[in-house]
């Protein structure tokens, strides 16, 4: 009961083809392939951009912390100053 034979998978495939049709399955397959290719290209571009900037994974995280600390200092509002008037 744990594993399926080749006949079980062929019957499942036949039912899927009958329900969705070959054209829709082809479109789904090409859309999925395009999405995977786009994801891989995006990962390559991101890695190439990080290499061009001279940052590695450790340096990028440290830079983000530094930038966040600088942003916090520049947007600090003194609430008591408004009431002193």
Automatic annotation (TrEMBL):
GO terms for molecular function: protein transmembrane transporter activity. The chain crosses the membrane at residues 6-22. Its main location: membrane. GO terms for cellular component: TAT protein transport complex. InterPro entries: TatA/B/E, TatA/E. It is found in: Cell membrane. It is a single-pass membrane protein. One of its GO terms (biological process) is protein transport by the Tat complex. Keywords: Cell inner membrane, Cell membrane, Membrane, Protein transport, Translocation, Transmembrane, Transmembrane helix, Transport. Belongs to the TatA/E family. Part of the twin-arginine translocation (Tat) system that transports large folded proteins containing a characteristic twin-arginine motif in their signal peptide across membranes. TatA could form the protein-conducting channel of the Tat system. The Tat system comprises two distinct complexes: a TatABC complex, containing multiple copies of TatA, TatB and TatC subunits, and a separate TatA complex, containing only TatA subunits. Substrates initially bind to the TatABC complex, which probably triggers association of the separate TatA complex to form the active translocon. NCBIfam families: PRK02958.1, tatAE. This is Sec-independent protein translocase protein TatA.
């Amino acid at each position: 009961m744990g594993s399926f034979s080749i006949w079980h998978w062929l019957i499942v495939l036949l039912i899927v083809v009958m329900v969705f049709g070959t054209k829709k399955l082809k479109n789904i397959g090409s859309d999925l392939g395009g999405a995977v290719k786009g994801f891989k290209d995006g990962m390559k571009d991101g890695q190439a951009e990080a290499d061009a900037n001279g940052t590695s994974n450790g340096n990028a995280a440290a830079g983000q912390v530094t930038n966040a600390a600088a942003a916090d200092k520049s947007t600090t509002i003194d609430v008591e100053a408004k009431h002193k008037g």
